[in-house]
Design goal:
The complex is a heterodimer of chains A (152) and B (767).
Chain A: H1 3-27, H2 32-59, H3 66-73, H4 84-113, H5 116-150
Helix pairs in contact in A: 1-2, 1-4, 2-5, 4-5
Chain B: E1 2-3, E2 28-30, E3 36-41, E4 50-56, E5 59-65, H1 78-83, E6 97-100, E7 103-106, H2 109-127, E8 132-136, H3 142-156, E9 161-163, H4 165-168, H5 170-180, E10 197-201, H6 205-208, H7 210-220, E11 227-231, H8 237-240, E12 244-246, H9 253-266, H10 272-278, E13 279-280, H11 282-289, H12 294-301, H13 305-317, E14 322-325, H14 327-330, H15 335-349, E15 358-361, H16 368-374, H17 389-399, H18 415-424, E16 429-433, H19 437-440, H20 444-451, E17 457-462, E18 474-477, E19 486-489, E20 494-498, H21 511-522, H22 538-549, H23 561-564, E21 570-571, H24 613-618, E22 625-626, E23 645-650, H25 666-671, E24 677-679, H26 681-687, E25 694-698, E26 703-710, E27 717-721, E28 756-762
Parallel strand pairs in B: 8-9, 8-16, 10-11, 10-14, 11-12, 13-22, 14-15, 16-17, 17-18, 23-27, 24-26
Antiparallel strand pairs in B: 1-2, 2-5, 3-4, 4-5, 6-7, 6-18, 19-20, 20-21, 23-28, 25-26, 25-28
């Protein structure tokens, strides 16, 4: 069984998200809506991480190196300059996508095991991650023309 | 001054008790007997009272209410009766000004316009029109907004166009769109004539729309008076007349509204058949509000459970209901989510689309409605959906331009984002018209800094020197109400015409003429090389606007200058189907939510994440209204050890906005000469403050000093009116927006003026 590995993947990437949203919030305090929304979305990820924790105990979380490479390249630090916000948001988008993929796979495992409670947790992660990614997408799209064309 | 009543001492005047048909009462105020009267409507609040302008020897000498007008039947409030004197003020701007070597100097129109055009072209060359932004007003005329909208979207092709209506009315539009699919107030002022219950949420109507309050007072004095429920943290004039007054803590609108809906649903006071036939989302909404039993509401908001139950019972059992909502909701945290709850209330009880049942998501300014209709704020003209290619193509066809000329890659840029772009430097030119952001925007230190940026070219168009024009690079003298012809629309969709009564002073020009002049000088053309702006007069612009509105909810095609002149006002839609206008929208329970018609595909209430066209079409409600709910999020800044009190801001009955006009009327200015900080008796005792003491009020953003006024407010909260800037008194910091926060509602983008954390201390004569 490898399900423990995927529980670990989801758990750790959700915790990475908590940090990533905070990082972007702090770096872009001048974009007030970005700051406030990132702090809110960070709190969502914290709650989701806590929910997954329960299953780590049940199935025995096992460490897997792979996704760390992704989250260690993206948003190691936030950027400076005219493109900073857009690029940082783009990195956030990729990290949330990581959570969504890991969760989709985990949910398949939960279905195969008929673990109702784990299914419900995965569905909640799906729902909130979709909201997170929709916001990032909306915000990136709205920032893009100004950044690409008019910003120094 | 000869007035038919003293509106300063007796704000609302004599009662004419009634139920059914509101009696006539004509108010007037003149400095001399006029030679003639010219038809107009008031522009000092969003009521839009029909009035006549008295003229003698080419000057405005007074005003008189129009007895046949739908909105007021002759009545006028103190601002309307006295504000007109400002037109004749000696310090009107009469010549363009250009900043040279740090000083504003008189210039000719050619010089000023050529400079603006030259700068525009330089910016467009290097950065495209994304380097240009417009910040307009809620006080111009329909024809001006439409012209500006076309100039912006089809001439320049910039998405950066919004106005101060973002600060006052954005949430009204956002809430109507979220529930009903498009903008458009469902009810009519005439609903007050027969309703059994009136609910005011965050709306001190007695102060802000005095004539509408007169209508309510007359019902309260008449047979079968309506019950009155008022939700407001202060003991306002409105609250004093309430059957039940709920005074929630700042930032707790969602708990209170969720609590009311919870009680009403639990008691079964809902119209199941209506909900099933005409709405979607009931189960989701119910799940959210179930978390708010009265005891929990009391704990979070301070509203006693017994009072909440009483209010819910009255609202839940009334046969009809008129609800009004304004800044107490719109400028607070979770504005759109809370405003939508009032729509939900009416939907759950099936109280929409018939006499006595109205929702007034209020407008904060006299012509704010028109910015929403004509696309001079962050909307597309005709309540069209930027994300619906068919809608944008309609505009492209109408204006004869390429589809992609009209920005539709994202929602139009909202005001706070325009200012942010200006701050960050990617917007290089900001054209401000008919508004005073240096006093009315949040966090004034930041605004002044932005306006003074070397790299930002600021054009300010106004009738007077203000705190904003003082900082501009070019100042254009504008004509105002009474000096130009045009139309405008109020809260309940009533359209009025205002005829030019006198010439503007000196070289002042109407905003209409200025925008057209800009378009011609910039060489804006359509696809065939003809002038983009095809009209030269306001009437021609109105006719062009009619075509734009055809088939959309705000259909004006049945109106015209001739029909509006001499008439009592006409409520849109007015077209072949409704040649005399329309009292109620949604009389058949069919809303504007169909995917191909709606103005928006919707947003996440907490984040503003956009629903895509594909997602929306997958669950197309096809004419059913949305029941949308949200759970409570506490305000971002709350009182703490360093800043232990709540600050809330608002308006006074005698003044409009930054007092550019009302401050120039002796009667109005004497009635309310200075700002103040309103403190509860308990807090006054705690801080050893007596009436009139000068108090320093400080937030994380700045400091003001105000005389203390004690009473009428809950302990833990202070109130300061936002009217008092520096143009007539710069001896001390006193504009309350020195203290307010730069943040806004996720969906409506309306700033959170209604709360901040402050500390107070006696100023001890040190200013």
């Amino acid at each position: 069984m490898h399900i423990g590995k995927y529980i670990d993947l989801v758990h750790r990437s959700e915790l990475d998200l908590v940090k990533a949203f905070r990082l972007v919030a702090d770096a872009h305090g001048d974009e007030v809506d970005v700051y406030q929304t990132c702090m809110l979305l960070s709190s969502w990820s914290q709650r989701l991480a806590d929910n997954v924790q329960v299953f780590a105990e049940k199935y025995g979380e096992e460490n897997d190196d792979e996704p760390d490479r992704l989250t260690q390249t993206l948003l190691k630090e936030t950027r400076q300059g005219g493109m900073a916000l857009l690029r940082d948001l783009q990195d956030l988008y990729l990290i949330v996508s990581e959570v969504r993929v890991c969760c989709a796979i985990l949910k398949q495992g939960a279905a195969g095991l008929r673990d109702e409670a784990l299914m419900v947790t995965c569905e909640e992660i799906e729902r909130q991650s979709k909201r997170q990614v929709s916001w990032i997408y909306t915000r990136m799209k709205s920032a893009a023309p100004q950044t690409l064309i008019a910003a120094e | 001054m000869q007035a038919s009543r003293d509106s300063i001492i007796d704000i609302w005047g004599e009662r004419t008790p009634y139920r059914g048909e509101w009696p006539v009462r004509v108010d007037q105020c003149t400095s001399e007997e006029p030679d003639s009267w010219v038809q107009s409507a008031c522009v000092l609040c969003s009521n839009g009272c029909g009035i006549d302008i008295g003229v003698k020897n080419g000057r405005i000498v007074g005003v008189r209410g129009r007895k046949e007008d739908l909105v007021n039947l002759g009545r006028m409030g103190p601002k309307g009766l006295h504000g007109w004197v400002a037109n004749n003020s000696r310090d009107r701007l009469t010549k363009p000004l250009i900043r040279k070597n740090g000083k504003l100097e008189k210039a000719s129109w050619d010089e000023a316009m050529n400079l603006i055009v030259q700068r525009s072209k330089e910016i467009i060359e290097k950065y495209t029109s994304l380097g240009i932004g417009f910040y307009t007003s809620g006080q111009l005329f329909l024809e001006e907004y439409y012209t500006l909208g076309v100039v912006g979207k089809a001439g320049l092709g910039t998405p950066h166009m919004d106005g101060n209506t973002r600060l006052c009315t954005a949430t009204s539009a956002a809430a109507l769109k979220a529930s009903f699919g498009t903008d458009g107030q469902p009810g009519s002022y005439s609903d007050i004539d027969t309703t059994d219950c009136i609910l005011h949420v965050g709306h001190n109507i007695a102060s802000q729309q005095t004539v509408l309050w007169m209508r309510i007072l007359d019902r309260l004095a008449g047979p079968n008076p309506p019950k009155l429920i008022v939700i407001d943290p202060r003991e306002t004039y409105t609250a004093q007349k309430a059957t039940v007054h709920l005074a929630p803590r700042l930032g707790t609108n969602i708990p209170v509204m969720n609590g009311l809906l919870n009680l009403i649903i639990a008691a079964g006071h809902i119209n199941q058949a209506y909900i099933a036939a005409h709405t979607v989302g009931f189960e989701e909404l119910k799940k959210i509000v179930t978390n708010w039993p009265p005891e929990r509401v009391e704990e979070v908001s301070g509203v006693p459970a017994a009072k909440l139950r009483e209010a819910a019972h009255i609202i839940g059992t009334s046969q009809s209901l008129v609800s009004t909502v304004l800044q107490g909701v719109y400028q607070s945290m979770q504005a759109t989510a809370a405003a939508v709850q009032i729509n939900n209330l009416h939907l759950l009880r099936g109280l929409i689309g018939r006499d006595g049942c109205g929702i007034y998501q209020m407008n904060g300014q006299p012509t704010a409605q028109n910015t929403r209709e004509c696309g001079a704020d962050g909307d597309l003209p005709g309540f069209r959906n930027w994300d619906n290619r068919t809608h944008v193509q309609q505009l492209a066809d109408l204006w004869n331009v390429e589809l992609d000329k009209i920005p539709h890659w994202s929602p139009p840029t909202h005001a706070m984002q325009i200012w942010r772009f200006a701050e960050a430097g990617s917007i290089k030119m900001l054209w401000i018209s008919g508004t005073n952001p240096a006093v009315s925007m949040p966090e004034l230190t930041r605004i002044r800094k932005i306006l003074q940026k070397e790299e930002l070219f600021v054009v300010a168009q106004d009738a007077f020197m203000t705190e904003t024009t003082k900082l501009a690079d070019v100042v254009l003298p504008a004509a105002i109400w009474g000096e130009k012809t045009g139309c405008y629309t109020n809260v309940d969709r009533t359209v009025h015409i205002s005829h030019k009564a006198v010439d503007p002073p000196g070289e002042a020009r109407s905003d209409f003429d200025i925008f057209i002049d800009y378009s011609r000088r910039m060489g804006f053309k359509d696809k065939d090389g003809a002038e983009l702006i095809k009209w030269n007069t306001p009437e021609e612009a109105f006719e062009a606007w009619k075509e734009c509105s055809r088939g959309r909810p705000c259909d004006y095609t049945g109106m015209g200058y001739a029909k509006l002149t001499g008439g009592p006002g006409i409520q849109w839609p007015c077209n072949e189907q409704y040649p005399d206008g329309t009292r109620h929208l949604y009389t058949d329970g069919v809303f504007n939510t169909a995917a191909d018609y709606c103005e928006t595909y919707g947003h996440d209430f907490d984040t503003d994440a956009a629903v895509t066209q594909q997602e929306y079409k997958a669950t197309d409600p096809k004419g059913k209204a949305f029941l949308k709910g949200s759970d409570y999020l506490p305000p971002h800044e709350v009182p703490d050890e360093d800043y232990p009190l709540w600050l809330t801001t608002g308006r006074l009955v005698y003044h409009f906005h930054t007092r550019t006009k009302t401050g120039r009327s002796k009667e109005l200015q004497d009635a309310a000469p200075d700002g103040y900080v309103q403190i509860s008796e308990q807090d006054a005792a705690k801080y050893n403050i007596t009436e009139g003491d000068m108090i320093a009020v400080t937030s994380r953003r700045g400091k003001v000093i105000e005389p203390a006024k004690i009473g009428g407010i809950e302990p833990g909260t202070v109130f300061i009116p936002f009217h008092y800037g520096y143009w007539d008194n710069d001896e001390r910091p006193r504009a309350v927006n020195e203290l307010t926060i730069t943040e806004w509602d996720a969906v409506s983008k309306q700033p959170h003026f209604k709360y901040a954390a402050v500390r107070i201390a006696k100023a001890d004569g040190i200013l």
